[in-house]
Design brief:
The chain is 42% helix and 12% strand. The protein is α/β, with parallel strands linked by helices. The chain has one domain: Uracil-DNA Glycosylase, subunit E (3-Layer(aba) Sandwich). Strands 1-3-2-4-6-5 form a six-stranded mixed sheet, with helices on both faces. A hairpin with a 2-residue loop joins strand 5 and strand 6. The longest helix is centred in the last third of the chain and has 25 residues. 32% of the residues are buried. The structure holds iron/sulfur cluster.
């Protein structure tokens, strides 16, 4: 049995042959010399373990805690914010500061509990002075979010704020332009609304956010009723 077959039988998804073997077997060049085979994580726990010490971008050296995500690992609805703030950085949990308390009240108003949904941020480490994450920081962190979405497999995503919306939808349209309708992210319906911290700064955003949340709840009810009818 060749080394290639041994690796294949070991269940390695990305197969990189040892140096020299590529040429001998006319295999495509490995992306990196001596690259290590990479398994895709099969659980959120595995994903967390892979990245909890991440230093892929400069935010990793400044954080207190890596803020992965929290909630129901099989949630129908996933909320995605921007980045951890001071309180989240201290506790290692998303949306536990003032904006998080407001999000909890919004969830309660549309009859969800935090334990029913899954909550994460676009980037997992706190940017200094709560500045916006830089494009290269978002790009470095995006594989973690993409894997979280793949593993939770929500039917609905609510993008909270411009950073999450632009990242998921690969758009630079204004938030006002994106909100109020469903978009598509790899077959998952995405609703965009204001970030709770924006509501704390500007009460005028509360009414449109409430309209968006009611739309989210209606779609959740429609999808779950449809699923029950199909069972
Ligand atoms: S923000 Fe993301 S990519 Fe950057 S160090 Fe933290 S976990 Fe890694």
């Amino acid at each position: 049995m060749t080394a290639v077959h041994q690796q294949s039988e070991a269940g390695v998804e990305s197969l990189y042959a040892p140096e020299g073997l590529e040429t001998a077997l006319k295999l495509p060049k490995s992306p990196e010399k001596n690259a290590t085979p990479v398994h895709r994580p099969e659980t959120l726990r595995e994903l967390y373990a892979r990245y909890c010490d991440c230093t892929r971008c400069r935010l990793g050296s400044r954080r207190q805690r890596f803020v992965f995500g929290a909630g129901n690992e099989q949630a129908v609805v996933m909320f995605i914010g921007e980045a951890p703030g001071a309180e989240e950085d201290a506790q290692g949990l998303p949306f536990v500061g003032e904006a998080g308390q407001l999000l909890a009240r919004i969830l309660q108003a549309i009859e969800f509990t935090r334990d029913e949904v899954y909550i994460a941020n676009t980037v997992k480490c706190r940017p200094p002075n709560n500045r916006d994450p830089e494009p290269e920081e978002i790009a470095s962190c995006l594989p973690i979010l993409e894997e979280q979405i793949r593993l939770v497999r929500p039917a609905l995503i609510c993008a909270l704020g411009r950073i999450a919306a632009h990242t998921l939808l690969r758009s630079d349209a204004s938030l006002n332009n994106l909100r109020g309708r469903f978009h598509d992210y790899q077959g998952i319906k995405v609703l965009v609304t204001y970030h709770p911290s924006a509501l704390l700064r500007n009460a005028a955003f509360k009414r449109p956010t409430w309209e968006d949340m009611k739309m989210l709840r209606r779609e959740y009810d429609r999808l779950t009723a449809q699923q029950k009818a199909e069972e």
